[in-house]
Amino acid sequence: MCSDGAGGAGASRANRGRAARRGAPDPARQALGADGSRAGGRDHGGSDDPAAPACPAAGSAGTPNFARRFWDAAYASDEDLEHWHRDPPDEALARLVANGLLRDGGARMLDVGCGTGAEARWLARRGHAVVALDLSLEALARGSSARDGARGGRWLPVVGTAFELPLGDDAVDWVLDAGCLHSIGRSSRVRYARELARVASPGARLLIRGARADCAEEGVSSVDAVECRRWLAPGFEVEWTMPIELPAASGALDGVAVLLRRTRSDR
């Protein structure tokens, strides 16, 4: 899960994200392979380095620890199964597979706000190397114990923040965001956008799924094509959008999927 706010839970955790930028050894970076190839490591399960930056909170008191406790409690009580979980692929992923944009094998992927990592494991079983990032250790622990292991690929669960992604520059070919951007307040979206532009390689694709309109009851804000262009241009261009239905605590939520392509480097 992703959210709004700033800061981290101490210098030791924040340093990990900065180390990735400097090219220092990092489990997430190594899982993808610095040269674009898949590096050695676990097929599935937890990171060898559990320390990761804390993700700031959306709609909380603005403290990372509050948000982590909230999401850990939600996953521990199986609230995700009741309100948020759906077996992959959803409509947008199915479209990407059907039109040949998402083929089996070889891609370096980042799933931001992955929850229990069901989508990341589905993609890993198709042969991709996936870093699965979430604020909630409880969510990732549940995913690591799932029986649908990522044979033929690799998924690496990492506790971390969308504002300081634990990857090097141009590290991924795909970024998947299902419900992260729409939970980040507009005042903080530019920080997330900078990180997406940094880790996405030229030509990389970004699939964002979220609410079509602001919904105070769910604590989310619109992520339609207009919003995506506002925060992600000029480094990304919109390729297509499609209406989708999102699972939510209050029932189905009108959503939108936006596919963008990395068109230039701002560095």
Describe it.
This protein has 267 residues and is an alpha/beta fold. It contains nine helices and seven strands. It has a seven-stranded mixed beta sheet. Helix 7 links the parallel strand 2 and strand 3. Helix 3 packs parallel to helix 7. The longest helix has 13 residues. The chain is globular and about 40 Å long.
Outline:
This protein is an alpha/beta fold. It contains nine helices and seven strands. The two termini are 28 Å apart.
Q: Count the beta strands.
A: 7
Shape: globular
Q: Main sheet: which strands, in order across?
A: 3-2-1-4-5-7-6
**What proportion strand?**
15-25%
Q: Can you summarize the main beta sheet?
A: 7 strands, mixed
Series of secondary-structure elements, N-terminal to C-terminal: HHHHHEHEHEEHEHEE
Low-confidence stretches: 4-25, 34-62
Please give the radius of gyration in angstroms. Answer: 17 Å
Distance between the termini: 28 Å
- Portion in helices: 25-40%
Summed up, the helix count is 9
Average pLDDT for all residues: 78
State the secondary-structure class: alpha/beta
